TrEMBL record:
<keyword id="KW-0539">Nucleus</keyword>
<dbReference type="InterPro" id="IPR024661">
    <property type="entry name" value="RNA_pol_III_Rpc31"/>
</dbReference>
<dbReference type="GO" id="GO:0006383">
    <property type="term" value="P:transcription by RNA polymerase III"/>
</dbReference>
<dbReference type="Pfam" id="PF11705">
    <property type="entry name" value="RNA_pol_3_Rpc31"/>
</dbReference>
<comment type="similarity">
    <text>Belongs to the eukaryotic RPC7 RNA polymerase subunit family.</text>
</comment>
<dbReference type="GO" id="GO:0005666">
    <property type="term" value="C:RNA polymerase III complex"/>
</dbReference>
<protein>
    <submittedName>
        <fullName>Polymerase (RNA) III (DNA directed) polypeptide G</fullName>
    </submittedName>
</protein>
Length: 94
């Protein structure tokens, strides 16, 4: 159950046992959190060289080959989807 009597309930443990004094508590936040964390560390620059260029070209060629295969399902145009949807709506009304 809650503490006895009115007012603020007392802690059931000693705050000093945790090593936190009254002045050590963080201050209350007054504003929103930043959208992105601070960038204290800069990203490592990309490696440049013949090996990396070859791997990039190989990756792009493989991606293009995979997209040209007949097993790759190409997205239909939005107008086709709208026309099929309209036909189904008209059938539903009948």
């Amino acid at each position: 159950m809650a503490g006895k009597g009115r007012g603020v309930g007392a802690f059931t443990f000693n705050i000093d046992a945790l090593g936190i004094g009254r002045g050590n508590m963080p201050e209350a936040r007054v504003g929103p959190s930043p959208l992105f964390p601070s960038t204290d560390f800069k990203p490592v620059p990309l490696k440049a060289g013949e090996d990396e260029d070859y791997m990039l070209a190989l990756k792009q060629e493989m991606r293009g080959t995979m997209q040209r295969l007949p097993y790759n399902i190409k997205p239909q145009s939005w107008t086709h989807i709208q026309s099929v949807n309209c036909m189904q709506m008209e059938r539903h009304k009948l």
